[in-house]
Amino acid sequence: MIVVMDAKATQREIEQVKSRLKELGFQTHVIRGVKKQVIGAVGDKSIADAGFLELLPGVEKVMPVLKPYKLVSREAKPEGTIIEMGNLAIGGENIVVMAGPCAVESREQIVETARAVKEAGAQILRGGAFKPRSSPYSFQGLGIEGLKYLREAAEETGMLVVTEVLDSQDIPAVSEYSDILQIGARNMQNFRLLRAAGKQEKPVLLKRGLAATIEEWLMAAEYIMCEGNYRIILCERGIRTFENSTRNTLDISAVPLVKRLSHLPVVVDPSHASGKWYLVAPLAKASLAAGADGLLIEVHPRPEEARSDGAQSLTPENFKTLMEDLKKMAPFLGRRLDS
Ligand code: PEP
Ligand code: MN
What φ, ψ does residue 161 adopt, rounded to 5°? Predict the structure, then answer.
């Protein structure tokens, strides 16, 4: 249920409503909008127990949220969420591009990639240090050493970092080196990891599970948000279908649909969605046309030598060409792509 406060409601009135909700057994979350503040009340009680709240000073109306996800729903916050990180805004008019190799392989490799993607206009450097590989015999990532190289490369080039956290016990180490914590497709329903990510401060990039419905994906985001972390970016990365000529099937309709159902920013990963480097540029363009707030793209200086996902990695040259095209497209979509 959502308690919409009057635009002129005082802090005291908000506190009074929160304490009445707590007495009734609800957990409360104040969601600050541009004009109004709303109080999200979550718990197993219903609006029937709280309708009287409309009589309290400062309350405009009390509304049920019929969807199973509450805090992440559009109803809770009609205007889209914008996540501010230094000079960068994720959501709103801005388009954000996160780029880098699948895995951090060496200091030289990540520094070389960082320089190239920054030069082309990416704002966030990606690279896995803890890799969720299908086979236990495949390269598992450099771990902490990889995180250090990633941070160094980002500092040198003036970029932010996003990297995956595989296990809740790694959260302290990963957040020491990364600006955004990525929760991968395979962990989308690791509820303990989701809760742990909700209890810390860094924004979370939540990838859609391999076979997750949109509702399951939004419920996973709700797990993070109900712990108090409101800074979540959703990432569509393709889902499993009967089609096996691509690695996954990019669910392009998820982009406008999720933006309608939720206030959270949505980005697309055309690399894992397709598995083929030559499909990345067309899918990236389609994603922006469908309303995505950004992209996550794998780039490797020498894809043929990559220790993982070389087939879907762009060369720095191809990435540069793509970025030039995206910069031309952005104004037609009413968006901005600032480096
Ligand atoms: C990744 O982005 O490094 C990754 C492993 O992707 P996904 O979790 O979407 O498979
Ligand atoms: Mn990869």
Answer: -120, 140
The CA–CA distances, whole Å, from 261 to 29, 61, 79, 264 equal: 19, 21, 12, 9
Distance from the alpha carbon of residue 3 to the mean position of ligand 1, in angstroms: 37
Distance CA 226, CA 224 (A): 6
* Segment 225-251, tens digit of pLDDT: 999 999 999 999 999 999 999 999 999
pLDDT of 66: 87
- Give the position, in ligand 1's atom list, of the atom nearest the Cα of 208: 9
pLDDT digit string, tens, across residues 72-93: 999 999 999 999 999 999 999 9
Instruction: Output b/e per residue, 184-211; b: 16+ Cβ within 10 A.
Output: bbebbebeebbebbbebebbbbbbbbee
Does 259 contact ligand 1 (Cβ within 6 A)? no
CA-atom Rg of the chain in angstroms = 21
- Which residues face 297 on adjacent strands? 99
Q: Which of 272, 296, 308 to mutate to test the pocket of ligand 1 (most atoms within 8 A of CB)?
A: 272
Q: Which helix (H) or strand (E) holds 152?
A: helix 144-157
Cβ–ligand 1 distance for 208 under 6 Å, the answer no
Among the listed residues 150, 160, 79, 177, the one whose alpha carbon sits nearest the alpha carbon of residue 124: 160
Task: Tell me the C-alpha distance between 46 and 113, whole Å.
Answer: 52
Closest ligand 1 atom to 298 CA: 2
- Both tokens of 323, joined, read 């970025």
**Cα(217)–Cα(206) distance, integer angstroms:** 8
Task: With residue 257 as reference, give the H or E element that holds it.
Answer: helix 254-261
Contact 337, 123 (CB under 8 A): no
Residues bordering ligand 2, an ion, CB closer than 5 Å: 102, 309
Task: Count CA within 13 A, CB hemisphere, residue 105.
Answer: 19
The pLDDT value given to residue 82:
97
Residues 39 and 103 sit within 8 Å (Cβ to Cβ): no
